[in-house]
Write a structure and sequence with these properties.
Order of helices and strands: EEEHEHEEHEEHEHEEEHHEEH
Strand content: 25-35%
CATH topology: Spore Coat Polysaccharide Biosynthesis Protein SpsA, Chain A
Number of domains: 1
Shape: globular
Oligomer: single chain
Helix content: 25-40%
CATH architecture: Alpha-Beta Complex
Radius of gyration: 18 Å
Structural class: alpha/beta
Strand order of the largest sheet: 5-6-4-1-7-12-9-13
CATH class: Alpha Beta
Number of helices: 8
Number of strands: 14
Length: about 250
């Protein structure tokens, strides 16, 4: 299965960490963000990457070349950053079937494989990993409204009055139908082509979209303090795993 990784952003909120490098090369726990994304995707069976690059793209291309851990990499160029729907369209010529979409600036330790399994089993047109956040934080994200079967009936990008506290996390699966929807999207008030607007077009056309609740944790590394929080979290995980391994080791 192919995965599209979005890595074109400037990361202005992460400055000064991104003054001389693209956002996805900012390191957390001594590893660039995009490398953590690659490792997560390979671990769930992804065999090919399409990486959408833009800001300081040459650093990403020079570092990773045409493969990572044996998985081929194709680069798609987003010359101007006009939103996520616009970014996805840059990958369209390289996608030939259902695919995973993952943002390049999230640290996940969660049930990513469940999203792929759900879409394939239900033959849905899309499936997303979602999580609940405090209501006061929901307006920072794409907010979901679902029916009793867990199907998404509405997606609202950064609403002033969120319909729920269930938000998208940055991990999705799609059929190629998403490209048609992205072509139809009109610029938002922010002047960007929003992914939630494309998803809403799928919903309005009767497509089936599933929401899978996250089992685990993720951190969206949008600000320097998020990077520090991610560093602390991963260090704690490593320490806990070391303690478990020591406790499980047979006595000599």
């Amino acid at each position: 299965m192919q995965a599209v990784v979005l890595a074109a952003g400037k990361g202005t909120r992460l400055r000064p960490l991104t003054e001389d490098k693209p956002k996805v090369l900012v390191e957390v726990d001594s590893k660039p963000l995009i490398e953590d994304v690659f490792d997560n995707l390979i671990d769930i069976g992804i065999t090919e990457f399409v990486v959408v690059v833009g800001y300081r793209k040459e650093q990403i291309i020079e570092r990773y070349g045409d493969e990572y851990r044996g998985a081929p990499i194709t680069y798609a160029h987003q010359r101007e950053q006009f939103g996520l729907a616009h970014a996805i369209l840059q990958a369209e010529p390289h996608i030939d079937s259902d695919f995973v979409l993952m943002l390049g600036d999230n640290i996940f330790r969660a049930n990513l494989g469940d999203v792929i399994n759900r879409q394939q089993e239900a033959r849905a047109d899309a499936a997303f990993l979602v999580e609940e956040v405090p209501y006061e934080e929901a307006s920072r994200y794409g907010v979901l409204d679902t029916n009793e079967y867990g199907e998404i009936v509405e997606v609202v990008e950064k609403p002033d009055d969120p319909p729920s506290n269930l938000v998208m996390t940055g991990f999705y699966t799609f059929t190629p139908e998403i490209f048609h929807a992205c072509h139809l999207v009109q610029p938002s008030d922010r002047g960007e082509y929003e992914l939630p607007d494309a998803i809403d077009l799928l919903i309005q056309s009767g497509r089936t979209i599933d929401a899978i609740r996250m089992d685990g944790k993720r951190i969206d590394v949008g600000y320097p303090e998020d990077r520090e929080r991610a560093e602390e979290w991963l260090a704690e995980r490593t320490a806990d795993q070391s303690e478990e391994q020591t406790a499980d080791a047979p006595e000599q």
